[in-house]
Amino acid sequence: MSIDAVETPRRLLSLPRPTALAAPLAGALRRAAPTVAWGLVLPAVALPGWYLAARSGVLPEQILPAPAYVWSTFVDMVRSGELASHAGISLLRVVEGFGLGMIIGLVAGAAMGLSRRVDDMLHPFFIALSQVPTLAWIPFLMLLVGIGEPLKILVIVKATLVPVVINTRAGIRNIPKGLLEVGDVLRFTTGQKLRLIVLPGTVPPVFTGIRYGLTHAWIALVSVELLASSEGLGYLLVWGRQMFWLDTVVVGMIVIGLIGYVSDRLLASVEARLQRWAPRHD
């Protein structure tokens, strides 16, 4: 018998069995089941209420379309590709604006957290910037760049920038001094302190800022698309309102909410993985 013929069964025996793989998955599903169940309570109550209100005629169909009618509209928009087209345009705008705002925010927040001089220069500016609502910047930015794509990107960048900067700065400033003193005792270089102490220690606040930034980015996107756009999910809401297609408006609102929820859950999953890297202060 050849060596390969002997080794192959050994390798097969060393592979994890399906039952061994299924056990962790089943455990994760059991842990998530209560959360999912509680999350479905409100929709389970709201959907029958919506159906009964539409069926009884409390409000006209033009104001409150029935759930079945909204579902039919959703299916038609998916089949025609209209919904995917508008959602894709909005997602691309969010990815570009949020990505740029997050990078600038992380760099600026880190600089403010690590340098007292930079903080003295920039912190008052960002505090003042955070007090001005994103919607208030739209007329001014329209005068500067018009109503094209740069307007949408700049509005999203501004909405993302502020929470990322503030939380990154706070995360660095709140690193326990004891951890930094340990780095001094171990004679860490500046790079080692950043990599082994500062970065792991700032995971929770930084991701809080990033998640808030993503939420603000979606709000800003829909706001600017409502005012100055001919495509995207925000434009879909305006068009549906103008044509009194309330079923289209409801579909747009649901899709915006679902995309925002899924995006936030993805960031929460990444944060949970990175939390294992964060140092414990016990």
From TrEMBL:
PANTHER family reported for this sequence: ABC TRANSPORTER PERMEASE PROTEIN MJ0413-RELATED, ALKANE SULFONATE ABC TRANSPORTER-RELATED, MEMBRANE SUBUNIT
Subcellular localization(s) per the UniProt record: Cell membrane
Family of this protein: Belongs to the binding-protein-dependent transport system permease family.
Residues passing through the membrane, by range: 97-114, 126-147, 217-238, 244-263
Keywords recorded for this protein, A-Z: Cell membrane, Membrane, Transmembrane, Transmembrane helix, Transport
GO biological process: alkanesulfonate transmembrane transport
Domain ABC transmembrane type-1: 87-267
Major localization listed first in the record, in broad terms: membrane
Biological function: Probably part of an ABC transporter complex. Probably responsible for the translocation of the substrate across the membrane.
Domain of life: Bacteria
Pfam families linked to this entry: BPD_transp_1
The protein's name: Sulfonate transport system permease protein
Gene3D superfamilies on file: MetI-like
Record membrane topology: Multi-pass membrane protein
CDD domains recorded: TM_PBP2
Source organism per UniProt: Chelatococcus asaccharovorans
A cellular component term, taken from the record's GO annotations: plasma membrane
Record carries keyword Transcription regulation: no
